[in-house]
Each structure stands twice: as structure tokens, then as C-alpha cells.
Specification:
Length: 327
């Protein structure tokens, strides 16, 4: 099947090419993100493959559909960037990769937390400049601390298991609590009040948009550590900045940012930062930002590539679409 693959980087091309040895699709790798301006690049392809920051708005979907598009294969788990009602109206199947490595994302959340707590990012720079002072590098024992997890799906539960190993007490909140997760489920105010660390693992939905806002931060323990490897818009960023300035939030590890599209995944080192909110966030010594890299392990990339291409193969052969997004 001829597939236009948007927003690709060398690591995508390597993993998709390797997986395609079995599936033999006709892949066209494109660097640009899918936006209203780049729709034409999919001309002649009955399928496109898209990622987290591609724009799959009503306008884009209608235009692609008018050009003969039959399938959208997302190479990610989340689909908050897809206008699902329009896709349904146009009968455009949206396939995704519901699971590729919850370990990759959960382990990156822990990497952010450990670096922030023990200030490894600062120590690394200091030592390289021959500054062997320890002043200001004090952290805290995670053992015995309360770790709050919002969203206990695949990633949240793996993270809970890791943090149990650190000797943390786990508090959890989910609209659908999981019976096989050894955590105490509490309401959000209790989780906010009691947690020393809060990690976000719920999807971005209208109900979770700006879940952590000024009101939520006001209920938290002073000095709480916030980790977000889910979706940027779960956090109201200006409210986070105020909470960091007041000390309510003691540190923030962010792998996602609500305005990340067009910034993350791109080398902008020769440019001027135009996003003042992101620029302000980057000035805090107790904020560690990574560029949506939590998924980036060899295992996850191989699983993403295989499932994405298997989804396209199933569509092409008229087989059941097990990974179809439903509304
Ligand atoms: P999942 O579907 O297995 O789990 C999501 C959980 O969130 C479910 O248990 C669900 O009931 C819960 N939930 C839904 N609405 C909620 C609400 N209002 N409040 C609290 N909980 C709610 O998903 P997953 O595989 O664990 O992934 C979680 C999120 O991680 C994805 O939605 C995606 O946005 C993000 N993600 C990020 C990366 C990355 O590289 N940074 C990679 C993969 C996934």
C-alpha cells in the first residue's frame, strides 16, 4: 500500500524500513509535519502515517479525503490531534498503536524525577566546569515518600511498580480504577494534598485539559514535584510558572508541552525562541524539559513500526481492524 509518512526523522525511517521488510508497503518518508500547507504531499497515497504533532483537523481530513485518502495510520498511542467526529463522518478509519512499551515512558518519567531530585543536570554542568562544590545540590530520599499517579492505565501502572521498588507509598486517581493495581485509589483533592510527587498518565481529553491549573496547584503540598510525560495540555503552563515562582511546585519534569508542535523534535539551535512561556520555563533551574522523547527506546520504535505497518496490512487485506480508534 502506498503510504505517505509525515514528520519523519532518521530513527523513524530506520525502524519503519526494517519492519517493512515483512510488510512491503510503498513508504514515502516526508520530513514536514502534516498541516493545511502540506496536504499535497500525500497526493496519490491511499494511506498516510502520522505522529503526535501532525494536524488532523476537520479541514485537513476533508481535503485528504477529497484527494482519495482511505486510511490514517497513527504511529503513536494518543489521538487527541485527530478530529474524530470528522473522521467518522468521512468513514476514514483511524488506526493507532495502543501499546508499544509502557516501560519506555514510565522509565523516562523516573529519569526526569531522579535527575530533578538529585540535580544531576546541574551537577553534570558544574563538574565539567571544574566546579566540585555541592552547595544547592541537596535532594530527598524517595523511600517513604507519597507518589501520586493520575491515570493508571498501562504506563501509570508500570510506573507504580517501579516506585513501589523505591519504597514509595502509591496514591492513584483514575476515572476507571484498575483492580489489579496495588495502589490506594483516592479522589483528586486527597492525591493533591498528600503527594510529594505527582506524575500524569491520563490521556488528553476535554475532561483532562488543564487538569493541573491554579486551583489544583493551590491544593498541593509545598515543594511537590510534578512530572508530565503524557500530553502538555494536561497542565495550564502559566499556572505552573506561578506555582514554581511561589515554591508550591518544587520541581517540574516535562517531556511534553502544550505548545510543543513546531518546536519539539526540531533543531532550532540557530533560531530565536519565539514562545515566551516556554522561554520562561527554561529559565528555572528546577525545571527539566525533554523534547517528547519518553517513547524513544529501541524496543518502542521497533514495536511502533511493526504495529503501524501491520495495521496498514490488515486494512489492505480487509482483515479486522483491531487497533481502530472508536469514539
Ligand atoms: P492508557 O489508555 O493505558 O491509560 C490511560 C488511563 O487514563 C486509563 O486508565 C484511563 O481510565 C485514565 N483516564 C482517562 N480519563 C481520565 C481522567 N479524566 N482522569 C484520570 N484518569 C483518566 O494509556 P497509556 O498507554 O498508559 O498512556 C497514557 C498517556 O501517555 C497517553 O494518553 C499519551 O498521551 C501519553 N504518552 C506519551 C508518550 C511520550 O513519549 N511522552 C508516549 C506514549 C504515551
Amino acid at each position: 500500500m502506498k503510504i505517505a509518512v509525515f514528520d519523519t526523522h532518521p530513527y523513524d525511517r530506520t525502524s519503519l524500513t526494517a519492519a517493512n521488510a515483512v510488510h512491503s508497503h510503498d513508504l514515502t518518508f516526508l520530513e514536514p509535519r502534516l498541516t493545511t500547507q502540506t496536504i499535497a504531499l500525500a497526493q496519490g497515497c491511499p494511506a498516510i502515517c502520522a505522529f503526535v504533532n501532525d494536524v488532523l483537523s476537520a479541514e485537513v481530513l476533508e481535503s485528504l479525503h477529497a484527494n482519495g485518502l482511505k486510511l490514517i495510520a497513527m504511529r503513536c498511542a494518543g489521538y487527541n490531534n485527530v478530529d474524530l467526529p470528522t473522521a467518522e463522518r468521512l468513514q476514514l478509519p483511524i488506526l493507532r498503536v495502543p501499546q508499544y512499551s509502557p516501560y519506555a515512558v514510565a522509565e523516562h518519567a523516573v529519569a526526569l524525577l531522579l535527575a530533578l531530585n538529585r540535580k544531576t543536570h546541574r551537577a553534570y554542568n558544574r563538574v565539567r566546569e571544574m566546579n566540585f562544590s555541592l552547595n544547592g545540590l541537596e535532594g530527598f530520599d524517595l523511600h517513604g515518600k507519597t507518589f501520586g499517579i493520575i491515570g493508571t492505565g498501562k504506563i501509570g501502572r508500570v510506573l507504580g511498580g517501579i516506585m513501589l521498588g523505591f519504597g514509595c507509598k502509591i496514591l492513584a486517581y483514575d476515572v476507571q480504577p484498575s483492580a489489579d493495581f496495588a495502589a490506594k485509589y483516592v479522589d483528586l483533592p486527597t492525591l493533591y494534598r498528600e503527594s510529594d510527587v505527582i506524575s500524569l498518565h491520563a490521556p488528553l481529553l476535554p475532561a483532562t485539559h488543564h487538569l493541573l491549573n491554579a486551583n489544583a496547584f493551590a491544593q498541593m503540598k509545598s515543594g511537590v514535584v510534578i512530572i508530565n510525560t503524557s500530553r502538555g495540555a494536561l497542565i495550564d503552563t502559566p499556572a505552573l510558572i506561578e506555582a514554581l515562582k511561589s515554591g508550591t511546585v518544587g520541581a517540574a519534569g516535562l517531556d511534553v508541552y502544550e505548545e510543543e508542535a513546531g518546536v519539539f523534535f526540531t533543531d532550532l539551535s540557530d533560531s530565536v525562541m519565539k514562545d515566551d512561556v516556554l522561554a520562561r520555563l527554561m529559565t528555572f533551574p528546577n525545571v527539566l524539559i525533554t523534547s517528547h522523547q519518553a517513547f524513544l527506546t529501541r524496543e518502542a520504535l521497533a514495536n511502533i513500526a511493526e504495529t503501524t505497518l501491520a495495521n496498514a496490512t490488515a486494512f489492505e487485506k480487509g482483515q479486522p481492524l483491531l487497533n481502530r480508534v472508536t469514539t
